[in-house]
Amino acid sequence: MYGLFFNNNSGDGKGKKIAEDLHKLLSKQHISDILITGKDADDAIEKVKQTLPQIDVLVIIGGDGSINLAMTAMIQTNADLPVGIVPAGTVNNFAKRYSIPLNIDESLQLIAGQHSTRRVGIAVCNKTKSIVSSLTFGNLADISNEVRQEEKRKFGKIVYLFKAVKHIGKNKSIEIRFSLDNSIDEVMKTWFALITTTKSIGGHVYDDSSPDKMHISLLHNIGLRQVLPYLFFALTGHLKNSKSIDHFEAKHAEIKSVNNQTIQTRIDGDESINLPIQIEYRRNRIELFIDN
């Protein structure tokens, strides 16, 4: 039995149509399936949790946000079953990381036909929330919320640069304590933090992948030297080549605000848990369908 999960509230609502197309392909292989969706994010997680004991394979239709919901359900139930991905999101960092076909028809054929599996890693926040691609917080993390769709269509990516300039004047850095593995325990005046489990964010390959660690990139103690890299990242999404940004790798991280400020994170593009947080990278946590 295959469970076909799609998020009715994401993208342009094409998830149900893709699920129906996959149902037809699976039927030809004499594979039964069940559709899984929810009214909102919390309901979707609950629906997946309720369905997991009934299925042998979980297929996730959508981008990183939808994958996050389904894998969060797996984390909370300690479920371990093969996962297939149909990358129907906008950017699909997770699918790109593991070379899942980005063409919908090709990914459906992969799931319904011949395929292999491999074990891949994800991060887990506060033992209950998956991180399949990225966690961010700080000055730049909320810029996307401020950009209206009409502005983005009219001005393109340059609108993010304008918003970043406004942030330099009105927002200050935040004193954050980072405790990483057993090697780093330091307070940094942080403008922006990016934690990733993939080598590309927003379509930009910004760093090499580590097989068993997450990447942490920090822009802190901002001054004149850091303003240009800050604006460059706001416009392009690139962090790798800037000497003004510190990079770390870790299997475990504890992150908290020194002054107990309310600092909200964004996980896989959506508003999520407030600091303090604990993050653990779990290598080989997911058995993923891949091409032969």
Please give a structural write-up.
The protein has two domains: 128 residues, Probable inorganic polyphosphate/atp-NAD kinase, domain 1 (Rossmann fold); 134 residues, Tumour Suppressor Smad4 (Sandwich). It is 31% helix and 35% strand. The strands form three sheets. Strands 5, 6, 7, 8, 9, 12, 13, 14, 15, 16 and 17 form an eleven-stranded antiparallel beta sheet that branches. The chain has a four-stranded parallel beta sheet with strand order 2-1-3-4, with helices on both faces. The protein has a two-stranded antiparallel ribbon with strand order 10-11. A hairpin with a 3-residue loop joins β5 and β6. The two termini are 22 Å apart.
Shape: elongated
- Give the overall pLDDT as a whole number: 83
What percent of residues are in strands?
Answer: 25-35%
**How many distinct domains?**
2
Radius of gyration: 20 Å
Q: Give the class-level CATH name of the largest domain.
A: Mainly Beta
Regarding quaternary structure, how should these chains be classified? single chain
Label the CATH architecture of the largest domain. Answer: Sandwich
Distance between the termini: 22 Å
- Structural class estimated from helices and strands: alpha+beta
* Uncertain runs: 145-161
The tally of beta strands, per DSSP, is 17
Described by strand count, sense and barrel closure, the largest sheet is: 11 strands, antiparallel
Helix content: 25-40%
